[in-house]
Write a structure and sequence with these properties.
Elements (H helix, E strand, L loop, with lengths): L3 H65 L3 H9 L8 H49 L5 H4 L2 H165 L3 H169 L5 H167 L1 E2 L2 H136 L4 H112 L5 H48 L5 H16 L6 H58 L3 H166 L1
Keywords: Actin-binding, ATP-binding, Coiled coil, Motor protein, Muscle protein, Myosin, Nucleotide-binding, Thick filament
Pfam family, one: Myosin_tail_1
GO biological process, one term: muscle contraction
Length: 1222
């Protein structure tokens, strides 16, 4: 039998245990708080350390930025950076903050429910007190309990057994409490891990903000660069028009040069004909000389005959005496003739002296030729130096390629490092995901076991409570019966009854205490259930956050994959650039070889010219030998004449002695000899005339040789200019080929982008199917939860005697129902988002298709423009050929006129030589006037030189202004280097003009090949369009399924209207963004137009300055011409004073001056043409470089657009993945 003090002792033991438990919990909580404080302080210290490191990194990055802000790749990165998905992290942070606010609201709601439950608990305690009061009121009725004493004693053992069971349960509850404490530790650890993740997210948000700022800066730089590019494009279009006009002019000059070349070829043919004629005349002279020799032999034979006749005439001496008188007369006449011959000999000697002076002049010309040869050798050495410079430049280009290769290697190393980092991140993410899933599964299992255990304990306590209530009712009835039955008994039974009553009261108190304990245990169990439910909700929220972090990791993984693909594409572009550089190197080496070949050809041509000059010298030597032979023949004739005179004296003596008898025979022989002498004199005169003609032809050939040498030099200069122009055309054609290759590369890039878009479309479809599967899983979970709700309702119906518990369960179920509805609404929202994404993908696909069509049209327009440009170039070449033909005809006319003038001057010079002796005195008087005129001419020349210097200064000023314009183009340094290399290569390379036709043929073949490639590309485009149509059909099917699912969801829920409103709001925001984008583009266009207007105004000012300088130059030329006219007038006056000789001499001087001025004008025109050619090449190079820059800007813009779209798709995919989980 258990007494009352034992019961109270046990109750006191339980209170002591509770105090021990509270102390222990206080210690644990204080320890936990201390640990949390230490953890927070360590995290703060770590954050400070990281901030310090971050400050160092920021300083280093600022230094690097100051060094690398002008790097083109960095500018491109700045332009691309704003298109990344990192800027959207703030939106995600706002979403997380909204979720945190929702969780706070849920917490406040739970706090309110807790307060309500506490009030309900107070009401229950009041009811309990009322029951106790009623029970104490029933204590007086001892008689009612006497009947049930036996029953209560029998039930005592049962209650003790139940008490043992309750103690065992209490122990189990303690064990459960320990397990919950361990679970709480685990949750605290998970909480610390989540705090770490939150801090990491905050750091990533800070980094994202920094990246956002840098991206905004890059966007501004890109906008500025686009404006600058538009300005350059407009400026280059104007320069292009100007250069087209210059191209036409240069083509006309080329035509004139070709006509001059043809004219020189004709002159060369004429000179060859004259050389052949001279050779023929030389052969005729040789024949005539042989005939003279024959005549000489005949004369000698006749002389022998005459000697025989003289022997016969010795017998006729008398007759000869008469004839001797006649002979004396004839001898006097022969002496006069001899004197005439001597005068002719003196004339011939004068001519010989003149020929010697001419030979000396030819030797001087030979020295000039040698000097020209030395100059050619100097130019050859200069060309060699330029070749060496080209080799150095090629080596520099090789060094640039090596540097590019090293950069590619570094990028590959960085790419490999990024790949390793991505793989490590993936491994860490997968490990963290596995740990989180494992923890979540363990926590869910533990919570489910605890819930089951608590439900069992709850059912058991409710059964015990019901049994106790029934026993209490039975005890009351038994006590009433006993009181009624045993009221008339004696005092001893009353005492016994009182004792039994006390025992029963003590037992009743024990029962009440046990009931109170059971109620306390029930309240503790309910409290524990609430805590577990709260912990379950917290774990569920943590699981959601973990899933969100996993989605973020997946998004970052995809972003890294996209960046990896971008780096691979950049690597491929770098490799393509290396290939282009190698091709350029090969082309430069080929051009170098061609230039060497041309230099060798020029050397061979120079050697041929030297050979011709030597042949002409040999011909001159032959003519000299002929002249010497003729002089020797003349000496022989004189010797024969003297011999004949001696013989005549001898015959005279014989005649005086013997020839008187034979006078008649001697007279006949004399007549014969006189006839023969007349024939010999006639032959001598003919030979003299031929000699004079030979001298004239020799002089004419010498003058023609000089003219021919001058014309050869002009032809060489014109040929060099023509070759340079032809090389320019070759360069233009090669550049057009490069442009065609670039267009083909751009077409390939657009095809690749289209393929990428198709793959992204398939990826979006896969994501859409995954979302549908997730929606199905959410529905299944909804059904399971509905089943669980039904089971809970059944359980509530089975044990639903407590109205308060039923209401509480109903509220909880309503909350769960609302949560499920919210989850279902979120699933619907996710489905709507997926539908929007599919529609957006379709719109982007249509935009991509339109963009591809637009680019194809642009490329076709560019091909049409190139064809038109080539046609215009051909027309300009034809016009230049016609102009060259006209110039050639004019040059022929001028040449004929000059030849006639030269002939007239030669005749006048012959006449003036006769009157030269009479006019020497008058010449001395006029020399003073000539000196004055020369001083005046020198002053005029000095003024002309000053005007030329002013013109040169003006040109230098214009060039300086042009240089200032070119200095604004900071990105053209490498292109200028390439331009110089190309100009040097073009200056050195000498190809023939006839290769243009072959190159045009090759261009036509290349055009046909490109047309074939275009056809294949059109076929590929049609295939891609068919694939796009198929994908659209699939997308339409998917949309039909999505619409069916959406109808089902709308049938189940009524929240689709809100989603529609949100979608409309998003469309309105998209439209507003488009309007803003258009406004920004309009502002950019306005700013570019303003800048273009400013630059055009600057160009107009420079053009006006250039026109002013041109007018000044024209005025200077006019003044120079006036001075020249004045000089001519003065020279004409001097010529009128000097009569014939001085007039002719002045005419010769004027003609020489004209020739010099013509030469100088021709040289100046050639220099101006060379300058114009250089300017044309420079402007053409700048135009091509500007077009390349425009193409690069378009490529970068398209790449940035593609990258932005890809990032938007990647940005959408994590949102799609996170919404169903939420």
């Amino acid at each position: 039998m258990v007494q009352g003090h034992e019961v109270f002792f046990r109750a006191g033991v339980l209170g002591a245990l509770e105090e021990i438990r509270d102390d222990r919990l206080a210690k644990i909580i204080s320890w936990l708080q201390a640990w949390l404080r230490g953890y927070a302080s360590r995290k703060a210290y770590k954050r400070l350390q990281e901030q310090r490191v971050a400050l160092i990194v920021v300083q280093r990055n600022i230094r690097k930025f100051m060094k690398l802000r002008t790097w083109p790749w960095y500018r491109l990165w700045q332009k691309v950076k704003p298109l990344l998905n990192v800027t959207r992290i703030e939106d995600e942070i706002h979403a997380l903050e909204e979720k945190a606010a929702k969780a706070q609201e849920n917490y406040e709601r739970e706090a309110k429910m807790r307060k309500e439950l506490e009030t309900a608990n107070l009401s229950l305690l009041e009811e309990k007190n009322n029951l106790l009061v009623n029970l104490e009121s029933t204590k007086g009725n001892v008689s009612e309990f006497l009947d049930k004493q036996a029953k209560l004693q029998s039930q005592k053992a049962d209650l003790e057994a139940q008490l043992n069971e309750t103690t065992e349960r209490l122990q189990q509850e303690e064990e459960a409490r320990n397990q919950l404490f361990q679970g709480r530790k685990k949750t605290d650890q998970e909480l610390s891990g989540l705090k770490k993740d939150i801090e990491d997210l905050e750091l990533s948000v800070q980094k994202a903000e920094q990246d956002k700022a840098t991206k905004d800066h890059q966007i501004r730089n890109l906008n500025d660069e686009i404006a600058h590019q538009d300005e350059l494009i407009n400026k280059i279009n104007k320069e292009k028009k100007h250069l087209q006009e210059c191209n036409q002019k240069t083509s006309e000059d080329l035509q004139a040069i070709e006509d001059k070349c043809n004219h020189l070829n004709k002159v060369k043919a004429k000179l060859e004909q004259t050389l052949d004629e001279l050779e023929d005349s030389l052969e005729r002279e040789k024949k005539l000389r042989g005939e003279v020799d024959k005549a000489k032999r005949k004369v000698e034979g006749d002389l022998k005959l005459t000697q025989e006749a003289v022997a016969d005439l010795e017998r006729n001496k008398k007759e000869l005496e008469q004839s001797i008188q006649r002979k004396d007369k004839e001898v006097s006449s022969l002496a006069s003739k001899l004197e005439d011959e001597q005068s002719l000999v003196s004339k011939l000697q004068k001519q010989i002296k003149e020929l010697q002076a001419r030979i000396e002049e030819l030797e001087e010309e030979l020295e000039h030729e040698r000097q020209a040869r030395a100059k050619a050798e100097k130019s050859k050495t200069h060309l060699g130096r330029e070749l060496e410079e080209l080799g150095d430049r090629l080596d520099e280009a090789g060094g640039a390629t090596a540097a590019q290769i090293e950069l590619n290697k570094k990028r590959e190393a960085e790419l490999a490092k990024l790949r390793r980092d991505v793989e490590e991140c993936n491994i860490h993410q997968e490990a963290a995901l596995a740990n989180l899933r494992k923890k979540h599964n363990d926590a869910v299992g533990e919570m489910s076991e605890q819930i089951d255990h608590l439900n069992k304990m709850k059912a058991r306590t409710e059964k015990d409570k019901d049994s106790l209530k029934r026993e209490a009712d039975d005890a009351k009835t038994a006590m009433d019966i006993l009181a009624r039955d045993k009221r008339p008994t004696s005092l001893s039974p009353q005492h016994r009854a009182e004792r039994e009553k006390t025992t029963l009261s003590s037992e009743l108190n024990d029962a009440r205490s046990t009931a109170d304990l059971m109620s306390n245990e029930k309240a503790a169990a309910e409290k524990m259930n609430k805590q577990l439910q709260h912990q379950y909700n917290e774990i569920q929220s943590k699981l959601d956050e973990a899933n969100r972090t996993l989605n973020d990791f997946d998004a970052s993984k995809k972003k890294l994959a996209v960046e990896n693909s971008d780096l691979l594409r950049q690597l491929e572009e770098a490799e393509s650039q290396v290939g282009q550089l190698s091709k350029l190197k090969l082309s430069l080496t080929n051009q170098l070889e061609d230039s060497r070949k041309l230099a060798d050809d020029e050397c061979r041509e120079r050697a041929t010219l030297l050979g011709k000059f030597r042949n002409l010298e040999h011909d001159i030597d032959g003519l000299r030998e002929q002249l010497d032979e003729e002089s020797e023949g003349k000496v022989d004739l004189q010797r024969q004449l003297s011999k004949s005179n001696a013989e005549a004296q001898m015959w005279r003596a014989k005649y005086e002695s013997e020839g008187v008898a034979r006078a008649e025979e001697l007279e006949a022989a004399r007549l014969k000899l006189a006839a023969r002498l007349e024939e010999a004199e006639m032959q001598i005169e003919q030979l003299n005339v031929k000699n004079m003609n030979l001298e004239k032809t020799k002089q004419r050939i010498a003058t023609e040789l000089e003219d021919m040498q001058l014309e050869v030099e002009r032809a060489q200069t014109l040929a060099n200019a023509a070759e340079k122009k032809q090389k320019n055309f070759d360069k233009i054609i090669s550049e057009w080929k490069m442009k065609v290759d670039d267009l083909a590369a751009e077409l390939d890039a657009s095809q690749k982008e289209c393929r990428n878009y198709s793959t992204e479309l398939f990826r979006v479809k896969a994501a859409y199917e995954e979302n549908l599967e997730q929606l199905d899983s959410v529905r299944r979970e909804n059904k399971n939860l509905a089943d669980e709700i039904k089971d809970l309702m059944d359980q509530i119906g089975e044990g639903g005697r407590s109205l308060h518990e039923i209401q509480k369960n109903a509220k909880r179920l309503e909350i769960e129902k609302e949560e499920l509805q919210a989850a279902l609404e979120e699933a619907e929202a996710a489905l709507e988002q997926e539908e929007n994404k599919v529609l957006r993908a379709q719109l982007e696909l249509s935009q991509v298709r339109q963009e591809i069509d637009r680019r194809i049209q642009e490329k076709e327009e560019e091909f049409d423009n190139t064809r038109k440009c080539h046609q215009r170039a051909i027309d300009s070449m034809q016009a230049s050929l016609e102009a060259e033909a006209k110039g050639k005809a004019e040059a022929l006319r001028m040449k004929k006129k000059l030849e006639s003038d030269i002939n007239e001057l030669e005749i006048a010079l012959d006449h003036s030589n006769k009157a030269n002796a009479d006019l020497q005195k008058h010449v001395k008087k006029l020399q003073v006037d000539i000196k004055d005129l020369q001083t005046h001419v020198e002053e005029e020349q000095r003024l002309a030189s000053e005007y030329r210097e002013q013109y040169g200064i003006a040109e230098r000023r214009a060039n300086a202004l042009h240089g200032e314009l070119e200095e604004s183009r900071t990105l053209l340094e490498q292109s200028d280097r390439g331009r110089r290399q190309a100009e040097s290569d073009l200056a050195e390379a000498n190809d023939h003009v006839n290769d243009l036709s072959a190159q045009n043929g090759s261009l036509t073949l290349a055009k046909r090949k490109l047309e074939g490639e275009m056809q294949t590309l059109h076929a590929d485009l049609e295939e891609m369009l068919n694939e796009a149509k198929n994908s659209e059909e699939k997308a339409k099917k998917a949309m039909v399924d999505a619409a069916r699912l959406a109808d089902e969801l709308r049938a189940e829920q009524e929240h689709a209207q809100n989603q529609e409103k949100m979608r409309k709001a998003l469309e309105v925001s998209v439209k507003e963004l488009q309007v803003r984008l258009e406004e920004v583009e309009g502002n950019a266009i306005k700013t570019t137009k303003k800048a273009i207007g400013k630059l055009e105004g600057r160009v107009r000012e420079l053009e006006s300055q250039l026109d002013d300088e041109a007018r000044r130059h024209a005025d200077a030329q006019k003044n120079l011409r006036k001075c020249e006219r004045r000089i001519k007038e003065l020279t004409f006056q001097a010529d009128e004073d000097k009569k014939n000789h001085e007039r002719m001499q002045d005419l010769v001087d004027k003609l020489q001056q004209k020739i010099k001025t013509y030469k100088r004008q021709i040289e100046e025109a050639e220099e101006i043409a060379a300058l114009n050619l250089a300017k044309f090449r420079k402007a053409q190079q700048e135009l091509e470089e500007a077009e390349e820059r425009a193409d690069n800007a378009e490529q970068t813009a398209s790449k940035a657009k593609a990258k932005g779209r890809a990032e938007s798709m990647v940005r959408m995919s994590p949102q799609v993945g996170s919404n169903p989980i939420n």
